[in-house]
Design a protein that fits this description.
It is built from eight helices and 20 strands.
Length: 338
């Protein structure tokens, strides 16, 4: 099991990773997300031994790395998959995957499993982006690493390729039984692929939990806003319910007991009715999304929220509408911001 304890990393006089604590299960996939510059890639580099650590330790089986006792990358048995594929252009697919292997059996296994059999003799310049990433993953897994680090592995691919390939990568990692830490900017990717998600903010881990918990019960407003579209309705907490302008909803208090709260709502938690006599808001803008439309509504108390409705709803900026909370699951509520 990979264990990271109180890990901090500095670039010069700037601390970019602060007091990181996590454990990676035997075949767990942990997604790391956060805004640009929050320390995601730095964490991967530290785990791989490519940047020094300022404090704390990294433990895996026979070795422990600390600020005063570094373990070089070649002794950590770590596999890395990069966003730029990092293939040798002068070698074929098979030669790339077999690079530095004495036994070709593991390479053959992953060539077949990842659908590369017909591309054994091909050079990287003839491959599509998705094929290159499969080769990079096969090369990593053929070396039987103790854990795998993936740094934005799909960021250079077309959107149409990403959905299928992300699941192929997940299935390959699970088939290998190897744990992985996967850095991504794609929130949908993180929520759908990860066994757990770590949300980083300014070098600190704000929340580490299952995708469902991080999305529905965010530990902070930052997590709520980063994982999906979140708005906050002022309300009053009364016996497990919050009363708002859009009706009442079951709620969980996320930061202590208090009556004046802001209730987190997402666009799918709210219904929209156009032309209602008891309207409570006005359309600020509308965006067509194909099967749905996303609206920004200015409520009569000045609060603004987003609501997603069927494409068959057609409201224009300035139209009066009625919004109502329709969710039956408990929503996260935070102390009212003054």
């Amino acid at each position: 099991m990979l264990t990271v304890s109180n890990l901090s990393v500095d670039y010069g006089t700037t601390r970019v990773v602060r007091d990181l604590e996590l454990e990676l299960g035997a075949d767990e996939i942990l997604m790391l997300v956060g805004p640009t510059g929050c320390g995601k890639t730095t964490i991967l580099l530290a785990l791989a031994g490519l940047v020094p650590i300022a404090s704390g330790e990294i433990r895996l089986g026979p070795w422990t790395a600390t600020a005063n006792a570094n373990v070089p990358p070649e002794q950590r048995n770590v596999g890395m998959v990069f966003q730029d594929f990092a293939l040798f252009p002068h070698l074929s697919v098979e030669e790339n995957i077999n690079f530095r292997l004495t036994d070709p059996a593991p390479a053959d296994h992953w060539i077949k499993l990842l659908g590369l059999e017909d591309l054994r003799r091909a050079r990287p310049e003839t491959l599509s982006g998705g094929q290159k990433q499969r080769v990079a993953l096969a090369r990593t897994l053929a070396h039987e690493p103790a854990f795998v680090l993936l740094d934005e592995p799909l960021s250079n691919l077309d959107a149409a390729l990403k959905d299928d390939l992300r699941w192929e990568i997940r299935e390959a990692l699970k088939a290998a039984g190897v744990p992985a830490i996967w850095v991504t900017h794609d929130q949908e990717e993180a929520l759908s692929i990860g066994d757990r998600i770590g949300v980083l903010n300014a070098g600190r881990l704000e929340q580490l939990d299952t995708p469902q918990t991080c999305f529905a019960q965010p530990a902070s407003r930052f997590v709520a806003n980063f994982l999906g579209e979140a708005d906050f309705l002022p309300g009053e907490y009364k016996g497990s319910q919050v009363e708002t302008l859009l009706g009442s909803a079951p709620a969980l208090l996320m930061d202590g007991e208090h009556s004046d709260v802001d209730l987190m709502v997402r666009p799918d938690d709210i219904s929209l009715k156009i032309g209602s006599e008891d309207s409570n808001g006005e359309v600020a803008w509308a965006r067509y999304e194909g099967g749905t439309r996303l609206y920004r509504i200015k409520l009569d108390d000045g609060t603004q929220v987003k609501v997603r409705a069927s494409h068959e709803h057609t409201a224009m900026p300035g139209d009066r509408v009625k919004l109502e909370i329709i969710t039956t699951h408990a929503l996260a509520a935070f102390r009212r911001e003054v």
